[in-house]
Design brief:
The chain has two domains: about 5-145 and about 195-265, Rossmann fold (3-Layer(aba) Sandwich); about 145-190, no CATH class. It has eleven helices and nine strands. The chain has helices at about 5-10, 25-40, 55-65, 75-80, 120-130, 150-155, 160-175, 195-200, 220-225, 230-240, 265-270, and strands at about 45-50, 65-70, 85-90, 105-110, 140-145, 175-180, 185, 205-210, 255-260.
Length: about 280
């Protein structure tokens, strides 16, 4: 992450810990879990959770049998995550991972890309993830939709405020969104930007999954999430349309999964001097 004073101040309030554990944020959580369980290599394997926060995903991944190391630039997050059984946590920056080349089986970037406003930094984070993952291993990166600001402002009722309205529409134009309630800038992707950024990081192919669809905008979504039977139907409904290109931008969040090339591709990269070899 780009660790600005505003970003640090927000996360040091510890408000992020429960965001995916309660309310409609659970839809993003369960859908992320759903996609990862279908795209990660089977446990036991070594996963690197970059920008993993307080360990909301690391916790269930360890329970599923994975060996999880979490990296995050926020000390509070690292402290909380390190208390979780089986989770190893330390400070780290997505743009320079303190991990050896081809040493992990999968890399998660479930937060860093929307905190990196500069495209070069986002491509660098993806390039670093590609460096440390083993051949054939997946890199899964979350992005926020370019249209999430307008949808959220309407849902919350803040769209009637002129500043909120202008902020939401600015984000639709250039992807830059100043979160008025949080005080830091986030980057919001157009779904069609994602394959180009992955390609520039050495991933020619990427699968895109819309996480929430329109369902997070429904007024009774919490009622569905509270009822296990209805929740299963809701998750299945979104799964059935998760990769329809025309619907990707409706989801507040998108999960993007690419895989590092196999041995021949890696050899060609090394001959071309693309691997950095640093730890």
């Amino acid at each position: 992450m780009a660790l600005t004073r505003e970003l640090l101040a927000y996360y040091e309030q510890d408000r992020e810990h429960d965001r995916l554990r309660e309310g409609r944020g659970r839809l993003e959580f369960w859908r992320t879990q759903d996609v990862l369980r279908r795209t990660l290599p089977p446990a036991p394997t070594r996963l690197l959770d970059v920008g993993g926060g307080t360990g909301v995903h690391a916790e269930w991944l360890v329970a599923d049998g994975y060996d999880v190391e979490l990296l995050d630039p926020i000390s509070l997050h690292v402290d909380r995550a390190s208390r979780l059984p089986g989770v190893s946590a330390r400070l780290g920056d997505a743009r320079r991972l303190p991990v050896a080349d081809a040493s992990v089986d999968a890399v998660l970037l479930l937060g860093p890309l929307y905190h990196l406003a500069d495209r070069a930094d986002r491509v660098l984070a993806l390039t670093e993830a590609r460096r440390v993952v083993r051949p054939g291993g997946p890199v899964a990166a979350a992005t926020i939709s370019r249209y999430a600001g307008v949808h959220e402002a309407i849902y919350l009722g803040s769209y009637v405020d002129e500043r909120e309205r202008q902020t939401a529409h600015t984000s639709m134009t250039d992807g830059t969104m100043l979160s008025l309630g949080r005080g830091f800038t986030a980057y919001l992707h157009d779904p069609d930007e994602v394959p180009r950024e992955f390609a520039d990081a050495g991933f020619p192919d990427v699968e895109r999954y819309g996480l929430e669809g329109a369902f997070a905008l429904y007024g009774d979504v919490n009622d569905w999430l509270d009822d296990p039977e209805r929740r299963a139907h809701l998750l299945a409904a979104q799964r059935s349309m998760e990769s329809v290109p025309s619907l990707l931008g409706i989801s507040g969040h998108m999960l993007n999964v690419a895989r590092r090339g196999h041995n021949l591709d890696v050899l060609l990269d090394e001959l071309n001097g693309e691997d950095t070899g640093h730890e």
